[in-house]
Amino acid sequence: MIRVLIVDDQSLIREGLRMMLGIYDNIFVVDEAINGKEAMEILRNKEVDLILMDIRMPVMNGVEATKIIKENYPDIKILILTTFNEDEYIFEGLKNGADGYLLKDISSQELVRAIKTVYEGNVLLQPDVAKKMLESMKQNNTIQKNISKDIFKELTKKEYEIALLIGEGKSNKEISKTLYITEGTVKNHITKILDKLELRDRTQLALLIKRGKSYD
To answer: Domain 140-213 belongs to what architecture?
Structure first.
């Protein structure tokens, strides 16, 4: 059972999302919040696995809330769900630790698949979002330095295999099964990979892998 918290300042959106998710047995809507501040108050008293987070809200918006929640509850997944396909929100939200970004015009089936994908530890970016992120990364000196034909030269064979699987959106559990190693070992390898490539998280790594493949 995936416990979901809906955070949106529009009651119609919250009600619609609750109704959409209510028909699925493996998803339970724990509560609703009208802004980031109220969401954090709910988290103090209720167990939540994943948050559907709107961006533009009064008092505390989704970008600010994502940063604070991830700092205090790193295991909670945050899926940004908004009508605003604007660069500044995409970049800031993901930079603050969001696990995925979707526009509100998706179907209920697509939303549920997205929730499952993020809950299982995978990175979720729609194609247009990934494209924007890659363009942004090209402007970053550290990332740009690593985007080259010999991007993986610092990695061991096993680290390289794990990096490619992360680029495919695989979770730690899926990687461990594929390579016949423990999840703990996968985590250790990922830490080393991020350190060697000077990346902040697996989202940046996944994007970097996609970018690196364009040089093959």
So the answer is: Orthogonal Bundle (1.10)
CA 156 to each of CA 159, 192, 196: distance values in angstroms, whole numbers, following the listed order: 5, 10, 11
Q: Give span(s): CATH 3.40.50.2300, the chain.
A: 2-124
Give average pLDDT by consecutive 10-residue segment, the chain, 216 residues. Answer: 95 92 93 96 96 93 92 92 68 79 83 90 68 55 48 84 86 89 90 86 77 52
Q: CB neighbours (10 Å) of residue 155?
A: 17
Fold of the 2-124 domain: Rossmann fold (3.40.50)
Query: Can you tell me the distance from the alpha carbon of 50 to that of 15, in angstroms, rounded to the nearest whole number?
Result: 17
3-state secondary structure of 98: coil
Strand partners, 25: none
Query: How far, in Å, CA of 89 to CA of 28, rounded?
Result: 27
Rounded CA-CA distance 76/66 in Å is 10
Sequence-ordered list of residues with C-beta below 8 angstroms from that of 30, at least 6 positions apart, any chain: 3, 4, 5, 42, 46, 47, 48
Report the alpha-carbon distance of residue 168 to residue 94 in Å, rounded. 18
Find where tokens 């994007």 sit: 207
Domain with CATH 1.10.10.10 in the chain: 140-213
Cα–Cα distance for residue pair 99/152, rounded to 1 Å: 24
Distance from C-alpha of 209 to C-alpha of 137, rounded to nearest angstrom: 12
CA angle at residue 107 from 62 to 21, to 5 degrees?
A: 70
